[in-house]
Specification:
With 610 residues, the protein is an alpha/beta fold. The protein contains 17 helices and 32 strands. Strands 16, 17, 18, 25, 26, 27, 28, 29 and 30 form a nine-stranded mixed beta sheet that branches. The chain has an eight-stranded mixed beta sheet with strand order 6-7-5-4-8-9-11-10. Bound molecules: flavin-adenine dinucleotide (FAD) and S-adenosylmethionine. The site of S-adenosylmethionine has 21 residues, from α3, β5 and α6.
Length: 610
């Protein structure tokens, strides 16, 4: 069940929470208040002017609300910080606003209009957990955590240990929202603080002053904004040094990525955002599973919240944010339909769409609505994913590598080994070799082949799949959305539809098979039971191999010093890869990751080594 904000707009147009009976921002001027309370009293923007090359400045906030503080920080950071510095804004929100509520609030904030409109077009479906979004070519990262700070902090704080540079304490007034101002908050602040960490808050309530003081923060009372008499701000008094982020030595910054698929491409983009250059080695780009003509992008939802579905809806937000910004020309926001096609599925789908997910994630359509949405007759109810869609994998992958500025070398890698000075030697098929401090293996189902002897192989299993391309027909051409059933059918592109896919466990043979086309066509006919599914003409076909894991979760993480891996993306690599790329680049750069400790452990290669 999602918690939603209960908001009314007062006579000044300012949003007011009816749950807490408190305003989101000042009726005098939200912008001026935010500037005064949160920026000025954290020494911003002055501190940003002095950031080092590639340095990341991290702000953590309690209570995202309308996102005003984020929008202002984003705007002012770009104005004042050196061009190659980054802002990481991490905010927590228990009662997320809807897009409509945000739009109405932003009418009062013309000063940040160009930024707020960008943000709105990427506002995620507010499902619980973290939504990692990046803006301004990766200079600004937002981790929007949906949930209660009291539950999230214990699972998040180790990620952010000593990495937060400034805290914005902006929950509603302690008298109206005592739950948020518990010791947990102050303890988390201390755990994530270093000797330069500051904080500011609009309140000067005793419980807050005492909590801050006990946690090791200096507490200074200063005049408040507008009608507020006092507020407090201060600095952490502990002697902890901020951990180093990535090295700024250009040679050490270059990372070798082995693989030319979507996982490698997303790693390259995420490293590029952090100023890290990449050398990519693969026989060809998009030559493996990532080279199909069309692919669907949608979250995996279960009838109850599971770690797997949590991962996928989190990944889905990052995927949308990435494709919309980096490859808008190849991203088709068509929507995806999952027709029920039998009674058992109908019941399950009703459960999925009851009140477990936000309506911007998924909705249940009756048969009539489904027909209208699909553009062709389906005649059964369906799950409808309004934000989902499809893309063309090959140009997406190539375009992402281009945008990452990767130096691409079309070679097969024979082996990797340690050099005597602790670097990695990557030996190529033509006898040449490349030396690197950091290497990422993004080699799909071939993952174990290149592992050095001292790293235990992972239980990656290949699953061969063949797609069939069919020519469109008069009755099929109006299909507007991807249909997902036991296979999938994508709307036409240049008169051709992609129909997927077979599933042969343990097979790696790339020869295409006529019987696989028949299998794909039969699956469509048997499921749809519609005249438009009959007698379709095959245009061509393609076979490739998925990399799967026993627990269906992908793998991302460090394998041993300087060697990283990303694999096991299964059947949904285009949904998961952008988030996995962010995680891998975050691990390499020592950033705060957009995951709870549990979720990270479930993705780690170490989970198989128990
Ligand atoms: C038939 C089929 C249909 C699919 N449909 C969809 C879909 O609709 N939506 C979706 O999200 N996902 C879909 N998937 C899954 C998706 O394609 C994969 O999850 C994704 O492409 C995996 O990306 P990857 O980069 O990890 O692996 P790959 O794309 O397989 O890339 C691996 C790369 O490693 C390189 N490599 C391997 N060994 C070496 C070596 N020794 N030296 C150098 N390079 C090496 C390969 O050449 C290749 O470039 C489908 C998969 C299949 C098989
Ligand atoms: C004053 S508003 C935030 C204002 C916001 N910074 C803005 O610019 O709109 C306080 C926010 O804290 C959120 N909040 C309250 N209690 C919370 C909790 N326990 N965990 C997470 N968020 C909480 C509220 O839902 C609300 O959005």
């Amino acid at each position: 069940m999602n918690s939603k904000a209960s908001v009314k707009f007062n006579e000044y147009g300012v949003p007011v929470s009816t749950t807490f009976d408190d305003i989101y921002f000042s009726i005098e001027s939200g912008i001026d208040e935010s500037q005064y309370v949160f920026l000025k009293h954290n020494g911003l923007p002055e501190r940003w002017q002095n950031l080092k090359k590639q340095e990341c400045f991290t702000i953590a906030e309690t209570g995202f609300g309308t996102g005003l503080n984020f929008l202002l920080a984003w705007q002012q950071f770009l104005k004042h910080a050196p061009a190659n510095a980054r802002l990481h804004f991490i905010s927590f929100e228990k009662f997320p606003l809807t897009v409509q509520q945000l739009q109405q609030a932003y009418a009062l904030l013309p000063e940040v209009e160009s930024i707020s409109s960008q943000f709105l077009s990427h506002y995620p479906a507010p499902e619980p957990g973290c939504h990692r979004l990046t803006f301004a070519e990766g200079k600004v990262t937002l981790d929007l955590w949906i949930g209660d700070v009291n539950e999230l902090f214990p699972q998040w704080q180790t990620q952010a240990e000593h990495k937060v540079d400034a805290w914005f304490l902006d929950g509603f007034a302690p008298s109206k929202n005592p739950d948020m101002w518990q010791n947990q908050l102050f303890e988390t602040m201390a755990m994530t603080a270093h000797e330069g960490t500051t904080y500011a808050t609009f309140t000067a309530a005793g419980v807050v002053r005492r909590g801050l003081n006990d946690a090791g923060f200096a507490v200074h009372k200063v005049p408040g904004y507008g009608r507020k008499r006092e507020m407090v701000c201060g600095q952490y008094q502990g002697q902890v040094v901020k951990p180093e982020t990535q090295s700024t030595d250009p040679q050490a910054d270059s990372v070798v990525i082995i693989g030319g698929g979507i996982s490698a491409a997303c790693c390259a983009v995420s490293l590029h955002k952090r100023g890290v250059t990449t050398k990519v080695i693969a026989p060809n780009l998009a030559d493996g599973a990532s080279g199909n003509p069309q692919g669907a992008v949608y979250p995996l939802l279960h009838a109850e919240h599971t770690p797997l579905s949590r991962f996928y809806w989190q990944a889905f937000s990052t995927a949308l944010n990435t494709y919309r910004q980096y490859v808008p020309e190849h991203w088709q926001a068509s929507g995806v339909l999952q027709p029920a096609f039998n009674e058992q599925r109908e019941q399950r789908f009703q459960k999925v769409a009851s009140d477990l997910y936000n309506e911007t994630t998924v909705r249940y359509l009756n048969a009539e609505e489904t027909n209208k949405a699909a553009g062709i007759a389906i005649d059964t109810p369906a799950l409808f994913y309004p934000q989902a869609g499809w893309l063309k994998p090959e140009p997406v992958v190539k375009s992402l590598f281009r945008k990452a500025g990767s130096d691409v070398l079309n070679r097969k890698v024979q082996s990797i080994s340690r050099t005597t000075d602790g670097d990695w030697r990557v030996s190529l098929s033509n006898g040449e070799s490349i030396q690197a401090k950091r290497v990422v293996l993004a080699t799909g189902h071939n993952f174990n082949e290149l592992l050095p002897a001292n790293v235990e192989p992972l239980p990656i299993k290949p699953v061969r799949g063949q797609i069939t391309q069919v020519k469109t027909t008069k009755s099929l051409a109006p299909l507007k959305m991807v249909l997902c059933y036991k296979g999938y059918l994508v709307p036409e592109s240049e008169g051709i539809h992609c129909l997927g896919a077979t599933f042969n466990r343990g097979e790696t043979d790339l020869e295409t098979r006529l019987e696989d086309n028949e299998d794909n066509l039969k699956k469509l006919c048997d499921n749809a039971k519609q005249p438009w599914a009959n007698g379709l003409d095959v245009h061509t076909q393609r076979a490739s191999v998925r990399a799967t894991t026993p627990d269906h979760q992908p793998v991302v993480g460090q394998l041993c010093s300087g060697l990283y891996g990303i694999t096991g993306l299964g059947s949904r690599g285009f949904t998961s890869a952008p988030l996995l790329g962010e995680i891998l680049a975050g691990l390499i750069s020592n950033d705060t990751l957009p995951l709870t400790d549990d979720a990270l452990a479930r993705l780690s290669p170490a989970r198989f080594r128990r």
